[in-house]
Amino acid sequence: MYRPQRPRYFINGRKSQQPSPSQALGWALGMLRRGRRPGAVHIEVSGQPAPECLQGVLDLLRAIPQLSGRPGEGVAFLELPAQLLSPSTAPFIAGAFPNLARLELALDPKVDASREAARGLALLLGAAPGAEGGGATAAVGGGEEAGGGPNPASLLPRLTALCLAQCHGCERLPPGFGPMLRQASQLRTLEMRMHFGESGSLPEIDTAIFREPLEELASLTQLTALSLYSCAVPLLPVLTGALTRLTSLELSYQHGSVSPAVFAPLQGLQRLEVPCASLEVTGLAEALSSLTRLSVGGFTFADEAAEKPLTRIPRWRLPAGLRELGLGADITAPRVPPEALAGLDLHPGLCLDPNSAQGSFVLHPGRHTAPPVVEDDEEGEEDGFAGTALLPAAEEALCAALSFVRRHGLDRKVNVDVTFEAEVADLLLQPVGGAAGTGPGRPNHGRWLRAVAALGPSHLWLKGINLSYQDVEALRDGMAAVKDLVLEPPCELPLPALPLLAGLPHLDFITLDATPWAEDNLESSELRGQALASIVALSLARPQGRDLQLDLCVDAGVSRERVRAMGVRVRECMRAWGVQPPLIMVNGYSVKPETDAEESDEEQ
After folding, report:
1. What confidence tens digit (pLDDT) does each residue in 74-108 have?
2. Could you give the CA distance from residue 214 to residue 219 in angstroms, rounded to a whole number?
3. Is the domain 1-132+155-187 a CATH 3.80.10 member?
4. How far apart (Å, rounded) are the C-alpha atoms in residues 471 and 479?
5. Which SUPFAM superfamilies does the annotation name (predicted)?
6. What is the full DSSP assignment across 236-303?
7. I need a surface site. Which of 183, 268, 431, 453 has the fewest CB within 10 A?
8. Closest Cα to residue 371, out of 359, 353, 392, 386?
9. How does pLDDT run across 281-294, given as a tens digit for each residue?
10. Please, what sign has the CA dihedral across residues 594, 595, 599, 600?
């Protein structure tokens, strides 16, 4: 790797020397002479290449065909800065790597090299003379008017795949590329590392910005494989309606929900990769009947279905010809409604990608809980449910989804996340039912918490849930592997139950919702007193020598100072008793008594 701005030679990421381009060339040729036979070549340059750098690359390309054994014949992939591709360099590239199948061009918007690169690429792909844009005819070496003569012979007849890597802010085919690529009949695969709008819905004015670039891309109707970072959902039909020969489509950073009907025009689509998106299940098997490989972040239901209260688990199926499924493999994969997994039957012969994982679920009010309470005006009586407890079918779906995860080995990440998306922060998912008899903590979330415990998670993330005393007992008794317990605001647990968490042998990090303790009123003051006592009791109950970090989270717009002061008091109490206090943070920032700060200053 040689960069003019930082002339250093790197081997495995470590600086070795500061060679000239001719020295780097000598080392590369030396490796080839000693029998190295690369399958891929990467040439990287930052900015406009200096003359000596360009000369070094040309010398390398000229020398490779002259070496014994012709080491360039095994090279199928070449990464090249667009600045180094032109009509003059194209013959040397073809001569050095005659069997090249894939070319990656790194485009720098600060360097105007796209038209020269387009002219060079026209030679490699055998595009019609002049098709790449104005002035191209002379650059290619004469010829007839643009589009008026036959396509020339391709310098690289095996070159069928092109990747355009471009910096953010230039999301379109580079100048001169569109007309030329339309004439490149041998081109089959195009990868553009670009975002064509956000992946969710866009305002009309923003959609218009990306429509013209997408229509230009959609004119490359010879393509059978296309890969983009993302495309605005309203504009996806621009592509799928025109590129009907596609057998492979990848949208590697597409987020949000996508209907399979968008892909229905692609009757021959065999591979679909949307690893960060949710794919709606309604009509999926019919719209994507030719699929053999699917990678998806998760499955969901269309809005109109998701708004109705869940009364039963809907059954659905994947395309009958699907042979490989990647599910939730990306770190940014979305949370999924539990009924989407609970109602899925994987047919025989379907293999799950070994990187598949699923442990993040979302519950919605009105879908997974009962409708809000309605009042009878005549009699003044309330009817229906409170709307903050799981419906029986929703509880069944969540348990079945967790069982699906365990049965199919999707607990690879050993993380479980259950979120109740309450529209109002005060309306948390309430515990229900419980054991016979009376007493504190009788209502509980015990059934689905036991299903979570069966996965043996090391990280448990809950949001929008009101835990009972009995639930905390279930955590202590059934989740021995938990290291991180995050109760993201809004989330509640009874403070007297907090010391029970000392029974988790590996627990070293807890996040609690401290927002209810932060107000300047009597109720919050009492809660701070209870919290202080419970945190001290938790710390004392833990075996000596086991560190604990406690993060107390307060919502934005609420003062953190009272919670911070409470954390300081906890540490002071622990130090007074000669016990090592836990590391206490408020919204990620550690709190220390003034004595701690003074000692730290003295040590420095």
Report:
1. 999 999 998 899 999 999 999 999 999 999 998 87
2. 9
3. yes
4. 11
5. L domain-like
6. HHHHHTT-TT-SEEEETT--SEE-GGGGTT-TT--EEEEEEEEEE-TTHHHHTTT-SEEEEEEEE--H
7. 268
8. 386
9. 999 999 999 999 99
10. negative
